Amino acid sequence: MFTQPSSLIKKILIGNRSWEWVPILVARVSLGLFFSVSGYNKLFDPEKHADLINLMSEIGMPFHKFMALVLASIEFFGGLLLIMGLLSTLAAIILSIVMIVAIATVEIEHAIPKGIGPLDWMSWFLYLPQVLYIILFIWLITTGPGRFSLDHLIADKLCLNRTAK
After folding, report:
1. S-S: 72 plus which of 37, 42, 80, 118, CB 3.0-4.6 Å?
2. 41 Cβ partners below 8 Å, 6+ apart?
């Protein structure tokens, strides 16, 4: 009776890849804006820069003033790269590493209550925004930055976007 699923059922079950560029673009640009603004504030707002240096010192980060400058620069320039879609995979990898370090050095110790069971701990862990950023970065790394990116334009110029037949 149903030899071929209807178009609506097919879209419900497997999606519509022709619109995949929209969430890729929105995720990449949104993450880029978030990190570039965050990094900018940590670099150029004296109060936020001092807060970052104090946090680095509190968690025992060696060379905390230098590392605060490195972190803020990575966030600022990594965010700009994501917005432009230039070296997006590299930016996503580096920002993922920064998020893993932030989770390991700050968030687990300060954001997750002590003495809770494993399911509650996992719930608190998955609620951390850094975890969501990492998930989105992994998604962007695997899908690529999308067709509205400088990476895509460069790949076109280098004939890397052609599929083998």
Report:
1. 42
2. 48
